[in-house]
Amino acid sequence: MSDTSEKEQAREKEQPRRRQARGERRIAQLLEAAARVFCTSGYTAASTNAIAREAGVSPGTLYQFFPNKEAIAIELGDRLVHEMRAAYGEALGPVDPATPLEEAIGSAVDRFITFNTEHPVFFALMHGPDVPGRMAEQHDQLHTTVLGRIEDLLASLMPGAAPADVTRTAHVCLGVYKSGLELVLAHEGAERVAYVQEIKDVLIRYLEPLVGERLGRS
């Protein structure tokens, strides 16, 4: 085979890879624009025209990749749920009994807060009134999984508690966090920091008499 033929074949193989890379960059651009629009306008009021305008492309370009805003929201939700699962896996891992309760709760809350403040569209989409059905299902599954991880963690810290008590405690902890998260996302700067600390303080004071001396013992 001649050098010319080999070069032509190499170019032919490279072209699809380049097209794929350009397509992936365009999808990322559209998803970032959609996240900003969903945060500003909400899912219901958002439109594909607004997303295309935010991305700096024509509606026709957007439709090459997504048929409608629901498809955009679902793709965005899929990626965020994947990242969220990684975040809660780190946040709700086993805790060393020598870890002070304040430190254990603070670390877990910080990881969740960091994810949600870096991706505010996650809260906007997952808690909106008219999210696509698939996203609602994903949220329910994620809620169930996170709740199960919290129960497992609490069960190790409350060995004498009845399963129903552990489940109830897990529900309260998650409910406190989710309620506080809405306040955190509504504020910035020092006020945001203060609200994060309030969430930690509430959880510490709630769990302290239940966990007893299980944490913080050397």
From TrEMBL:
Domain (HTH tetR-type): residue spans on this chain: 24-84
Annotated spans, Disordered: 1-23
Record flagged with keyword Plastid: no
InterPro entries: DNA-bd_HTH_TetR-type_CS, Homeodomain-like_sf, HTH-type_TetR-like_transc_reg, HTH_TetR, TetR_C_22
Record-given protein name: TetR family transcriptional regulator
Molecular function in Gene Ontology: DNA-binding transcription factor activity; transcription cis-regulatory region binding
DNA-binding region residue numbers: 47-66
Organism placement in taxonomy: Bacteria, Bacillati, Actinomycetota, Actinomycetes, Kitasatosporales
UniProt KW keywords: DNA-binding
